[in-house]
Amino acid sequence: MNIAVYSGSFNPIHKGHLQLAEYVIDQQLADEVWLVVSPCNPLKEQKDLIDHFLRLDMVIAAISNRKGIKASDVEFDMPVPSYSIDTLNELSKMFPEHTFTLLIGSDNALVFDKWKNYGEILQKYSVLVYPRRGYEFETVAQRFPQMKLLPTPFYDISSTEIRTAIAENQSVDEWLEPEVVAFTQENGLYKL
Q: Most CB contacts within 10 A, which of 58, 72, 145, 161?
């Protein structure tokens, strides 16, 4: 099987993440999408990050009724911070029967040359890129012609905005699956 590896903080996982994963499966770009929960993203601020086990449980709740989307904790036992090349190589070692494709946003694609061993990623793995507003596909295509650009809609949902809305007791139903809303409430997540 071809597995699309979609790593993220998922702090929290929202409908945009899920719609993108479903797009990849619907377009037959991968057989499955594995949502890899990153304990520590080297390119992101960590102060607002809740425990990675809670984030994994949230992802599991969000995908409970979705075919072809799985949660992965592969990075939980790896050195921190998590680097995509190490994750991809570890998954390839653990599941030699699968091929792996990296799924990233155009914001990350534009700084891909700052990623650890980015040349090795491009050499060994396919890279799918979805659009992020303000991060031009044309520039990605010029710099990394081997990446496949996906004509997905913009998923203009921000985990930061969701955390703020929860802290301010605003409704987040339009952004989060009901299971995730319930999970955040039951665990008192993102409250001030």
A: 58
**Cis peptide preceding 42, ω within 30 of 0:** no
Taking the C-alpha atoms of residue 100 and residue 174, their distance in angstroms, rounded to an integer, is: 32
- Quick: pLDDT tens for 101-121: 999 999 999 999 999 999 999
- Measured between alpha carbons, how far is residue 40 from residues 25, 43, 118, 146 in Å? 27, 9, 18, 28
pTM of the prediction?
Answer: 0.94
Q: How far apart are CA 154 and CA 17, in angstroms?
A: 11
What is the helix (H) or strand (E) element at residue 102, kind and residue range?
A: strand 99-105
Q: Which residues of 72-102 are buried (b: 16+ CB within 10 A; e: fewer)?
A: bbbbeeeeebbbbbbbbbebeeeeeeeebbb
Of 41, 31, 33, 32, the residue nearest 10 (C-alpha): 41
- CA–CA distance, 67 with 165 (Å, rounded to integer): 29
How far apart CA 130 and CA 109 sit, in angstroms, is 9
DSSP 132: B
